[in-house]
Amino acid sequence: MAEERGGNPMRRPRIEKVTVNISVGKSGEPLQKAMQVLEQVTGHKPCLRKARKTVRDFQIQKGEPIACMVTLRGPDTEAFLKRVFETVSNRLPSSSFDGRGNFALGIKEHIELPGVRYDPRLGIFGMDVCVSMAKPGYHVGRRRRARSKVGARQILTDEEAQGFIAERFGVEVTEAS
Fold first, then answer.
1. Phi/psi of residue 116, nearest 5 degrees
2. Of 7, 26, 33, 36, which sits 20 to 30 A from 148 (CA to CA)?
3. Per DSSP, what are the bridge partners of residue 48?
4. CA 49-53-58 angle, 5° bins
5. Contact yes or no for 109/126 (Cβ under 8 A)
6. DSSP readout, 17-74?
């Protein structure tokens, strides 16, 4: 993989952000407990997410807080991802990747994470972990002033992302069956 890039630092994949989400489906005490769990697991203060529309079957009103999330950037991302990959026994199906190098995985119980203890007052929550990856230079497609297209060679492929994850974290990417 290093030969493909030719040592060019602008061609190296990197982790832009890791988004951790717990969706409870209702506001109140369960959501407050989920926020405490998320803060305990990530070390960052979570923010609330509101319902986009009313769903009467689930008794959810539009604008009601029903989930919480944390976005991790910088050195916190790698430490957190190492713990998450241990939870899934360092295996990731190739179907988790979206075609642009980003991937997502779910954790059924937060107590599976190393270093997290069960607290009966809080309960057990599952969470979604979404990882956004990019190469340097992706910003040209998102910036406000002088926005332009991201070059074809600068777009991250699934193979490059899988190689990066395997090399950096020792994760085995398996073929989806």
1. -110, 130
2. 7
3. 68
4. 90
5. yes
6. EEEEEEE-SS-SHHHHHHHHHHHHHHSS--EEEE-SS-BGGGTB-TT-EEEEEEEE-T
Q: Quick one: tokens of 107?
A: 């954790």
Token digits of residue 11: 């061609």
Instruction: Output the pTM of the full model.
Output: 0.86
- Residues 80-131 pLDDT 10s: 999 999 998 889 998 999 988 899 999 999 888 888 888 889 889 999 999 9
Report whether 107 contacts 124 (CB < 8 A).
no
* In the block, residue with structure tokens 């319902």: 51
Amino acid, res. 117:
R
| Residue from 116, 127, 126, 132 nearest 165 by CA | 132
Q: How far apart are CA 121 and CA 127, in angstroms?
A: 18
Pairing of strands 14-23, 65-72: antiparallel
| Separation between Cα atoms, residue 118 and residue 28, nearest integer Å | 21
Q: Please state the length of the chain.
A: 177
d(CA 135, CA 1): 14
CB-based contacts of 55, cutoff 8 Å, min separation 6 = none
